[in-house]
Specification:
By secondary structure, the chain is mainly α. It contains 4 helices and no strands. The longest helix has 16 residues. It is flat, with a radius of gyration of 29 Å.
C-alpha cells in the first residue's frame, strides 16, 4: 500500500511538471481562430441549448421505462384477485 501511494504521488508530481502538449497544428493559425470564433460566437448559447435539449427528454423516457409510469388515479379494485376461483 505504501508503494502504491508513493507511485501515485510520483505520477501526480510528474504530471504537474509536464509541459502542455501542442497537439493541434491548426489552433494557432488564422483558420483555427476563425473556427473558434464561429463556434464560440454570439449564437453559442442558443446552439448549446438546442444541442443539449434532447438529453433530458431521453433521460426521462429511459427513467419512465425503467421505473415504470406512476399509477396515480387508479383504485386498487382493478388489481384484486377473483374470489372463489375460476373454474
Amino acid at each position: 500500500m505504501k508503494r502504491l501511494r508513493r507511485l501515485a504521488s510520483w505520477c501526480l508530481y510528474a504530471s504537474c511538471l509536464a509541459g502542455v502538449a501542442d497537439a493541434c497544428p491548426v489552433c494557432d493559425t488564422d483558420t483555427g481562430r476563425k473556427v473558434r470564433a464561429g463556434i464560440f460566437g454570439e449564437d453559442f448559447g442558443p446552439n448549446l441549448v438546442v444541442t443539449l435539449a434532447p438529453f433530458p427528454i431521453v433521460l426521462g423516457v429511459a427513467a419512465a421505462l425503467h421505473f415504470g409510469l406512476s399509477s396515480r388515479g387508479t383504485t386498487g379494485e382493478a388489481h384484486r384477485p377473483i374470489e372463489g376461483g375460476g373454474g
